[in-house]
Amino acid sequence: SQQGEEDPQALSIQEGENATMNCSYKTSINNLQWYRQNSGRGLVHLILIRSNEREKHSGRLRVTLDTSKKSSSLLITASRAADTASYFCATDEENDYKLSFGAGTTVTVRA
Amino acid sequence: SAVISQKPSRDICQRGTSLTIQCQVDSQVTMMFWYRQQPGQSLTLIATANQGSEATYESGFVIDKFPISRPNLTFSTLTVSNMSPEDSSIYLCSVEAENYEQYFGPGTRLTVT
Q: How far apart are CA A30 and CA A48, in angstroms?
């Protein structure tokens, strides 16, 4: 079942701008992962943040996690046309390895 | 990380037939997963496939419809049986790496006519 909800559903930005999307979840988690999917292809793993971490960086990506609010955000800085994709968050609950996915945010980067 | 391949990448099938999807990983992994992504939707877990035991199915998915094999630590198959147009989806396999990250295959796009 889907535990996460993502906001916004869709986002359109100009190349070079930053893109921020949010993910909320319902139960206590071990980890939260972010994925990118281009045009209905396979998912590309972007970053994993553990429940005891608050912020993580990878290149132009910055992920935050607030377990008190049960929410996470993904920031893409200096966006490029190649960042156009759907982005999903996925959580695995405590004592459970299975991933529950959010509905996803569709990001369009305009040249 | 893990490198995962799937076959076929896409197929168009007639209703009532079955399709077997293969998933190959470049390293030995304990846990493999099968997901379905219906058009315009997010991913839903179908089942967990562990080597040496029967697959564990999620609510709403049954073995008769989605039989799974896991003959070794690098390979698994998912069969979509007696297909109907509602089975048109992308089917993805994934594996869990040692650091809890899950990696996905490129997916199999199935269209049932």
A: 10
Q: Using an 8 Å CB-CB cutoff, list chain A residues near B41.
A: 103
Among A1, A33, A103, beta carbon nearest to B101: A33
DSSP state of B37: E
Q: Name the token pair of A61.
A: 């990506």
Instruction: Indicate the burial class of A58 (C-beta count within 10 angstroms; 0-12, 13-18, 19 or more).
Output: exposed
Nearest to B83 by CA among B42, B111, B49, B45: B111
Q: Give me the DSSP letters along B7-27.
A: E-SEEEE-TT--EEEEEEESS
State whether residue A89 sits within 8 Å of chain B by CB. Answer: no
Read off the pLDDT of residues A2-52 as tens digits, 9 standing for 90 and up. Answer: 566 888 999 999 999 999 999 999 989 999 999 999 987 889 999 999 999
Residue type, A71: S
Phi then psi for residue B85, to 5 deg, are -55, -30
Q: Retrieve residue A75's tokens.
A: 């920031």
User: What separation, in Å, do the N-terminal and C-terminal C-alpha atoms of chain B show?
Assistant: 36
